[in-house]
Amino acid sequence: MKKIKISLLGKVVIAIAAGILFGQFLPASIVRIFVTFNSLFGNFLSFSIPLIILGLVTPAIGELGKGAGKLLAITALLAYGSTIFSGFFTFFSCDAIFPSILPPNTELAAVENPGDFMLTPYFEVAMPPLMDVMTALLLSFTIGLGLSYIEGTVLKDGFTDFKEIITMLIEVVIIPLLPLHIFGIFLNMTVSGQVAGIIAMFLKVILVIFVLHVLLLLIQFSLAGSVSHKNPLRLLRNMLPAYATALGTQSSAATIPVTLAQAIKNGVRQNIAIFVIPLCATIHLAGSTMKIVACAMAILFMSGEPVSLTSFAGFILMLGITMVAAPGVPGGAIMAALGLLQSMLGFNETLQALMIALYIAMDSFGTACNVTGDGAIAILVDKIAGKPAQETAE
Known about the structure:
Elements: H1 8-22, H2 28-64, H3 70-101, H4 109-112, H5 114-117, H6 133-147, H7 154-191, H8 195-228, H9 232-238, H10 240-249, H11 256-265, H12 270-283, H13 286-302, H14 309-322, H15 332-345, H16 349-360, H17 363-385
Helix pairs in contact: 1-7, 2-6, 2-7, 2-15, 3-8, 3-12, 3-13, 3-14, 3-17, 7-16, 8-9, 8-13, 8-17, 10-11, 10-17, 11-12, 11-17, 12-17, 13-15, 13-16, 13-17, 14-15, 15-16
């Protein structure tokens, strides 16, 4: 008998539905068992965040130095610029839309201050992190940039092995336990009477982000079309097979062969496409950045917290760099961004769990937006590189 495999998105949807259902009749004594698990898991996640940053960001920045040249610099700058544009485009769009469709909801005070309304765990275990998030980020940038310049390989190999450990931690421990964590959050919110506002928020935010995804792709390919003097709609249409593949696989890496073939179909020279597409699958996450910024703003609006350009500008700029470290697993981008949400926007464990649930609910669309945008980056790099285009990845 063939074993049915449920995707992470499917597990999250089941966890949310089960949390709402069981919250209708489970006694508080049972609910507190799951609340206790949430407390332990949340503390472990807080402990893991600096390690995740150090283990993923450091080797990612170090790897960018390999074969560094004009083509690498051009591609990296375009990818970062596209990601940052996506972040600010999302901020200004959501800042105009969310106040009218997501009015501050006093019922969501429990999300911001869970101890005032929601059930408490039976016990807690302190798990202090080895360093704070900003220290981990600065240390990662410092070591990563150093690794990109030095000739030695011992430290590089060490951080490559550390990255494998952290990736395994995410894939084997954190990601499998996330649905149970989300189940506990929604179970507690249902018992506390907070879930109705959350579900309404989910549906509205998902619709807004989907529309913004389409607009972002139109902007990206309009720019690529104007630079290459080609019909932008035809260029975008040619990339639709990559979009559809990413919807199914939820993985930029798994979609690389299709993205590569469609970029070449759009007229990108093969040697350029072979270099740009795999690189952008790692460093160009405009769709993921859009989801994170929009979801963070939605949660802050709903919980009555202030949302300002001042606070989000730094968050978006740092997020563009941190996205380079997102591991190629479903939900990897939000895991890499948790540290920034915690340190720069003040998200507690409950808000982080809501971010994870809301992000994963749209994981396929974000990945599809990422890989489709890679095609636009490839067109721009092909044009900027000029006819000879002798520089390729070594």
